Amino acid sequence: MKFLFLIVFIYLLPQCTGKPLSRDDCHQHTFEEIKREIAGYSDIAKAIINLAVNGNAQNRSYERLANFVDTIGPRLSGSKNLEMAIKYMFRVLQEDGLENVHLEPVKVPHWERGEESAMMLAPRNHSIAILGLGSSIATPPEDSAVSCVLISRKEGRKELQ
């Protein structure tokens, strides 16, 4: 009896995933359909390869990459450098004669590093070096005072928990 229960349990367990057993809106593609779809992109792939090997982009990939990185630099989400990078790529792709080069509006969160400072007030005034994490929430514009605890050993951290 336990064996029968185990067999039924093992059979029914995958059925309890919360997903419908069958869906009418989902079409399973065969390998042949996928192969035909991929083959449909061969002309586009050949055009890209031809542009890189024989066209305007010939022997310029590393030169462009170096120029892009040196000129624009890091591109954080919502930064001016990201805007410059998008405009740069848009311009050079159009200059290369690529088709359907266009920009699309995208909602991107914006974060800028603000001024950061920390000061020990007691037993004496002393400036403390700090580094805020990217996208961290700013403290209010008025001064904030908090109590700190000095922990000199790893064991001290465990005592605070």
From TrEMBL:
Q: Which keywords annotate this record?
A: Carboxypeptidase, Glycoprotein, Hydrolase, Metal-binding, Metalloprotease, Protease, Secreted, Signal, Zinc, Zymogen
List the GO terms this entry assigns under cellular component, sorted alphabetically: extracellular space
Q: Which InterPro entries match?
A: CPQ
Q: Which GO terms describe its molecular function?
A: carboxypeptidase activity; metal ion binding; metallodipeptidase activity
Protein family: Belongs to the peptidase M28 family.
Signal peptide extent: 1-18
Record flagged with keyword Translocase: no
Q: Please give a single GO biological process term from the UniProt record.
A: proteolysis
Q: Where in the cell is it found?
A: Secreted
Chief location of this protein within or outside the cell: secreted
This chain belongs to the protein called Plasma glutamate carboxypeptidase
Top-rank taxon, per record: Eukaryota
